[in-house]
Amino acid sequence: MEPAQEKQFKEQPIKKQRKAVALISGGLDSMLAVRAIQEQGIHVEGINFFTGFCVEGHTHAVRKKHKDKQKRNNALWVAEQLGVKLHIVDVVEEYKDILLNPVHGYGKNVNPCLDCKTFMVKKAVEWIKEHDFDFIITGEVVGQRPMSQRRETMPIVAKDSGGDDLLVRPLSAKQLPATLPEREGWLDRDKMYDFSGRTRKPQMALAEKYGFKDYAQPAGGCCMLTDENYAIKLKDMWTNRSSREYELDDIIMLKMGRHFRLAPHLKIIIGREEGENNFMQGYKNLMVSIFPISHPGALCLVDGEFKSDEELNQALSLVARYSKGKNDPEVTLKVRQIDATEAEYTVAPMLEGDINKEWIV
Q1: What does the alpha-carbon distance between residue 280 and residue 306 come to, in Å, rounded to a whole number?
Q2: Is 326 in a helix, a strand, or coil?
Q3: Could you give the 3-state DSSP secondary structure of residue 294?
Q4: Who is most buried in 19, 154, 242, 328, counting CB within 10 A?
């Protein structure tokens, strides 16, 4: 090599590969956002924050009505399709304050979406500082969600999270002010998108372009807090406890079975099908349980305590109602205490017309 050429070669700056972390929920939007940034030569890894409320794969595995749905963690599956490493971070304890005390309130049900998104981006900011990454990606689209993705609320997420202009939203980048990665030339703004509104057609067209055939359908994401029936059960739990504090087991059990609030201090949960009954068996050492022994039937878990024989008989009769002996004069059931002591009772199954509608949660 000639001396002049050698000098020129040595003076060529080595271009640093920029690194981004993407919030991956398991939905199509974050999937598309990651691929759009990967195509610009950025090293991308994913992060998924486990709150306890986004557990759709668990429900699909338990309920027969979900038998046609994939038994998978969609965030892990998306990461695999994209070829990125996924970091799953447990934030169950930290998230409690977000759910119980949202600064910006709840959405239609008990979903603190604006506070939730701000919290997750804030955690991602902490993560990129610890791991020497350069910026953050989300799949947010202007106008798609009524709380966290309005044009006027998206800047709140960026500001309150500390993400500021390190927060890149590739699907709506052209609808928003240029971020630092764009101004510094790490990203080409022209290679990002200008999606807005609730229509999914642009995303579906982009998915086809990228060759994505199989992806989760949007329906409030995987968050149970957007589900009306789940929200009713959660509010009932809060109303009838001395405190709104909860544990992970509490929020999982709200997804299981039929819930009957017999008294402020007493709720019973009756399995709806074999998968739920099998899952609920795992709680027999934590909760009093009731199950038919003279006929096939559902397992019942007792949340609270019986303060009278009347309450016990109501529960026994209800559980008998959901057994194969519901049309027989009597059904024998076993009540199992947490210490494994058991007692048998024989009762008449409750008639459908005698079920108090106010019990149903």
Answers
A1: 20
A2: coil
A3: coil
A4: 154
Measure the CA–CA gap between 194 and 63, rounded to whole angstroms: 39
Q: What is the reported pLDDT for 72? A: 75
Q: Exposed e or buried b for every residue in 180-202, given b needs 16+ CB within 10 A?
A: ebbeeebbeeeebbebbeeebeb
Closest CA to 265 of 237, 244, 246, 245: 237
**343 contacts 313 by C-beta, under 8 angstroms:** no
Tell me if 196 sits within 8 A of 175, measured CB to CB: yes
Sign of CA dihedral 48, 49, 51, 52: positive
Contacts of 74 (CB under 8 A, 6+ apart): 25, 26, 27, 56, 57, 216, 222
What number of residues does the chain have? Answer: 361
User: Can you tell me the distance from the alpha carbon of 148 to that of 141, in angstroms, rounded to the nearest whole number?
Assistant: 10
SS3 323: strand
Q: Are 144 and 33 in contact, with CB atoms under 8 Å apart?
A: no
Q: pLDDT tens across 85-130, in order?
A: 999 999 999 999 999 999 999 999 999 999 999 999 999 999 999 9
Q: At what angle do helices 113-131 and 92-100 cross, to 10 degrees?
A: 150
Domains of the chain as residue ranges with CATH: 17-223 (3.40.50.620), 256-359 (no CATH)
- One-character DSSP codes across 14-54: PPPPPEEEEE--SBHHHHHHHHHHHTTT-EEEEEEEE-SS-
Distance between CA atoms of 19 and 166, rounded to whole angstroms?
12
Average pLDDT, integer, range 80-87: 96
Q: Which tokens sit at 130?
A: 């610890």
pLDDT mean over 310-333? 97
Q: Is 197 left (phi over 0), alpha (psi -120 to 50) or beta?
A: left
